Amino acid sequence: MPPDAIERRLLQSIVEVARHMFGAAASSIFLVDPETGELVFEAVSGKGEQELVGTRFPPGTGIAGWVAASGQPMVADDLAGTTPFAHDAAASTGYVPATIMAAPLFRFEECVGVLEVLDRTASRSELDDMELLGLFATQAACGLEFLLRERQSRGLEPPDDPYVLLQRIGSRLAATRPAEATAVRLLAIADELLAR
What we know:
With 196 residues, the protein is α+β, with helices and mostly antiparallel strands. Helices cover 45% and strands 19% of the residues.
């Protein structure tokens, strides 16, 4: 399987799990372009799935831009009264949600992207939705480590020690027991992809 297909499959699996986990209309991952600071749709599940991948927004646009800049998660259950919400940017995607949850994706303490969940259903978990999204974002960041490792092997990212990577993933798994099943699923997908 070509490297780009592996990246797409990994990111797509993350947004699909997030969408189903919250019974949401859509879920997406934006990555921050390290050169321009733009927010780039890298994966979408649900509304806009076919059209949005590759779409770019200027730095700081909307809730995703606010989360990327601040490194803080955000829940907006009333978008009409939420200052960072960019109605025009949402309308340009063909779907204007009523609610958004967004969590930053970190690598080496730097926000490299944002995981968003749009129009979730009522909570189906004992955990608070924001806490659950934060736990899942940590697991998604583990998946992004694999994506960035693949890019590094093609000379697009600075080198990193694979043993440090494995230690980091192991410590994250140990610290997030409630999300362990999700983490194991993501790692199994990554293992399957890397074995091809």
